[in-house]
Write a structure and sequence with these properties.
alpha+beta; four-stranded antiparallel β-sheet; 35% helix
Length: 140
Amino acid sequence: AIHRDHIRWVALEYKAQLVRDEPHFYLLRSQHRLKRMNLVRDSAAWYSWELIIRTRAFTIVCLLLRRQYIPPLCDCAQDIAITIHCPVDYWTQYEMQVLLSARVIADSVSPVSDTSIYRELVQAKLDGLRFDEDGIEWVR
């Protein structure tokens, strides 16, 4: 199994890739974050995870987003990463501005077009028990 059921497992793999060439680093933050601003009334579910990693030269702010149950069939997911690398001296002066910038970028991410859900097809999948428990709970 590749352990991508939850966004935190994607974040774990992404963190490993971000620091693979760094001999020394520490994790300042690794936590769930609520995405705000559903600007286009997207019917998909959004999940996000926030990572802040400090290396000797850089501070890395990484917000991972998962858009799940994407219309029209509600059977796929999409992962998006927003990453900001900034020098340590810049981070120490402008920590809050960098963090707020990354969060505003993540919160404003939305699909280009709104696709309606094919309710008849989704109902047929539900009737055929082709949704897992999380999918059924989301549809309700």
